[in-house]
Structures are given as C-alpha cells and as structure tokens.
Amino acid sequence: MKFSKYFKDNLYKFLIFIICYGINLLIFFAFKVDKSVIISSSFIYLICFLFILLIPYYKKRNFYTNLLLNTQALDKSYLVLETLTKPEFYERELLYQALYEINKSMNENVSRIEESLQDFKEYIEMWIHEVKIPLATLVLMSNNHKEQFDKKTKLQLKRLEDYVDQVLYYARSENAEKDYLIKETDLSKVIKNVGLKNMDDLLENKIDYIVENVQYKVLTDSKWLEFILEQIVNNSIKYKRNIDNSYIKISVQDEFDKTILKIEDNGIGIKESDLKQVFDKSFTGENGRNTNKSTGMGLFIAKNMCEKLGHKIAIESKENEYTKVYITFAKNKYYDVLK
User: Is the pTM above the cut of 0.90?
Assistant: First the structure.
C-alpha cells in the first residue's frame, strides 16, 4: 500500500486541516494571542493531524499488504479468506464480510458444478459399459463368422471399439487415483496383450511387430499401461509409410534408477514444428490434416495417464524416417526392500 496514493485518497482531510488551521490563526490574531501560544498550539495541531492521518494508514497498510501477499502466494487464491485475522477496524470488517459472502457463493456454485460433472461422468461411464456389450458381441461375431463380415466392417468395428475405450479412459483420468492400482507388472505380458489386440490391423497393414528384451517388471497399473501402449501402437499403424519393411519395434533399456520402454516405428514420422505440440489436447498436426484419421486425443490422454501414474513420456521423430516414444518408469528402492 503506497503512502502517495493513500495521501491522494485522503487529500480532503489535508485541505480541511489547512482551512481549520487558517481559521484558528485568524481567531488567534483577532484576540492578539501571544506568538509562543500560537506556535505551541500550531505544533500540537499538526501533531494531532499527523496521528489522525498516519495511524489508520499503518493499520490499513499492514492489512492490505498481507492480503495481497497471501493472495499471490496461494495456489488457490480464493482461500485467502482463511489467512485473514479478526477485523480490527470497521472498513476491514466490511471487506471481510464481503469476501466471506463471495467465497460462500463461489463454493456453493463450485459444489453444484462438481456434483453435476460427477453425475455426467458416471452416466458416461455407465453408457460406455452398456454400449461395450453389443460392441463386444459384434466383434466376437466378426471373428467367428468371417464369411459374413468383410475386412472393412471389421476395421470399423475395431475403430469404434478403440474410440469407446478412449472416451472411457479420458473420463476416468480426471479421477484416476480411484481407478488404478500400482503394483509390480510384467512388461512382456502387457506388450503381448497389445500385440494380440491389434493383430488384425498389423497383418492388414503388413507391419512387423518386433519385441526385443522386454522381460522386465515395473511398478505401474497394467490396465492403464496397456491402454497407453495401445494409443502409441495405433498411431504407428495409422501413420505407416507405403514401404515393404514396415515395423513397430518395442524394447526395454534397464538402468540403475529407471526402466525405459521404447516404442519405435519407421512410419511417416512427425514434422519438427509439430513435435512440441503432439501431447496437446486435440492437436492433430500436419499428419492428422493429411490423413483425416486423427482426433488428437490419443497422445494427450496417454501423457495425462502417465503423469497420474508417475511415469514420464517423451517423443522424438524425423519426418519420413522414424518415430520413437519413450516411457520411463522410476525404480522404487523402498518397495524392493519391503518386497
């Protein structure tokens, strides 16, 4: 709180003081008061005025300075009310009451919105589980009665199944801690499941699914990791090059304090200018605009889920040559000791 601005706001007090002091001097001179009395009374008058002006300033300065500092320091500024002490002057009491009413109104609105969002999320999850039943039946029928389902129909069923899973995991990722279970997970099993699930697409697109040196265990949620890998593999299939030796290679690099899962393909790659944005929500980039197959959500959800699980995900690519995705799992030495 700056004194110059405070003084400007209270300039009328200074003007009143000057006028009153002037009238007082005229009275003194009219009654021919001794000069020493005039000087003494003027000094007392000035001291009283400074006290009247400065004491409220220091009180208010401490209050408003703390208010601003606390507001800036808090991650959630609306909680600043909790940092304020009991009001010491009327103006502060009015502000405190106003903030209290504003905070109360905001909390009530936030609670209503959160409740509404939770209801909607639960409905979406329920709807997805319901729709997955007939969808799974269609997929099973397409596998058991191949003569009645052509490749295009099976492809569309697979795409529909992938998009439904994507919606489900996106909805769950907002409250991920309620849905995942971190435990020791065999990477080879997860990678095998992803390969089996995408086997038809891999064969259809003539892509070799190469798995090397993956017999490692990491701390993660197998179901969530499987979904993350599937998003990456689906992208590799979607953006393959028209060459004879297309492949997706998955390998593991084990280090002292971490385990790195690498997913590499020799597809069309990613434009250098797009690399920084590939994990952004709904970002499709040059490849997405050219193929019309991308929603821009797969890698966004994958990164979001990795962060929830405590993993790191990174990507590097060279256009028309390769794309490499790295998922890093930290090693928990405390877990090793207790195990």
Answer: no
Give the span between the Cα atoms of 195 and 212, in whole angstroms.
13
Within-domain flag for 133: no
Of the candidates 54, 89, 84, which has an alpha carbon nearest to the alpha carbon of residue 69?
84
Select from 206, 220, 236, 256 the least CA-distant residue to 298.
Answer: 236
Start-to-end CA distance of the chain, whole Å, equals 58
What pLDDT, on a 0 to 100 scale, did the predictor assign at position 288? 63
Which CATH number covers residue 281?
3.30.565.10
Pair 73, 192 in one domain: no
Q: What range defines the domain where residue 13 resides?
A: 3-85
Instruction: Tell me 331's DSSP state.
Output: -
Overall domain count for the chain:
2
pLDDT at 338 exceeding the cut of 70 = no
CA angle, residues 306, 312, 316, in degrees to nearest 5: 110
Domain boundary among 85, 119, 154: 85
Q: Is residue 96 part of a domain?
A: no
pLDDT > 60? residue 318: yes
pLDDT in tens, 75-128: 777 777 777 776 666 777 777 788 788 888 888 888 888 888 778 877 787 887
* Helix, strand, coil abundance in the chain, percent, nearest 5: 65, 15, 20
